[in-house]
Amino acid sequence: MAPLQPYVWCASAQVQKYPFMNSFEPHSLKAEIAAAAAAMVVEEGLEYGPAKRRAVKQMGLTSRTELPGNDEIEDAVHEYIALFCAETQPVELRALRELALVWMQRMAAFRPYLGGAVWHGTATRLSDIYIQLFCDDSKSAEIALIEHNVDYEPRTVTGFWGDSVEALSIRSVCKPLQETVGVHLMVYDHDDLRGALRPDAKGRTPRGDLAAVERLLAL
Q1: In this structure, what is the dihedral angle of CA atoms 83, 219, 45, 141, given to the nearest 10 degrees?
Q2: Helix (H) or strand (E) segment spanning residue 184
């Protein structure tokens, strides 16, 4: 058996593997990283950060390589979905939004807002659901889950301002997809709500309340 050869990065090979790269600016390394990461996001359900790091590693680049921003990854994800998942993704997205609405209704007392890929429209059957709760008492949401015998796993995650936030993670069955989906209830202080609704870098509302999700499902 011939010895394994070291991996050599070849842009033309990556264009063949990720054909939607052709729509990006040529010879842009960041665009190539974004395209490779987007495929992992859609096909494997990775979050943006891990997908970017794995793309860099698979491409044989150094850890100091400048990474694309999350907005660039999101654009690449939209492109990937349009090319490869145009028929299946809208159905999967709707099922996830319906499940998100169920949990938002259950947690309505804690001012739930839907964010992430399910809100922005790039989610697939492999995506988790992220719901932010804005509570007067940080333990009240957890107590409500306990009182209703809901199994959950407490964890600490990075919040939308980069600080540590408590999350209550649940595994919930999504019947239309025949999948068990991760639902993460991220607990914030009520005073954080105003800042949470500031437009993002693209001028969009970064998350939506119950009424906003209901409007999406009515379209």
Answers
A1: 170
A2: strand 179-189
3-state secondary structure 51-62: HHHHHHHHCCCC
The β-bridge relationship of strands 179-189 and 164-174 is antiparallel
Predicted TM-score of the model (pTM) = 0.84
Delimit the CATH 3.30.460 region(s) of the chain.
89-218
Structure letter (DSSP) for residue 69: P
Average pLDDT, whole number, for the chain? 87
Q: What does the pLDDT look like over 128-174, one tens digit per residue?
A: 999 999 999 989 999 999 999 999 999 988 887 778 899 999 999 99
Which H helix or E strand runs over 188?
Answer: strand 179-189
- Please give the Cα distance from 55 to 66 (Å, whole number): 12
Say if residue 139 is exposed, middle or buried (CB neighbours under 10 Å; 0-12, 13-18, 19+).
exposed
For position 206, what pLDDT does the model report?
92
The CATH classification number of 89-218 equals: 3.30.460
Distance of CA 211 to the CA centre of its chain: 21
The residue among 23, 51, 25 whose CA lies nearest residue 37 is 51
Residues of the chain with pLDDT > 70: what percent? Answer: 88
Judge whether 85 and 43 are in contact, CB under 8 Å: no
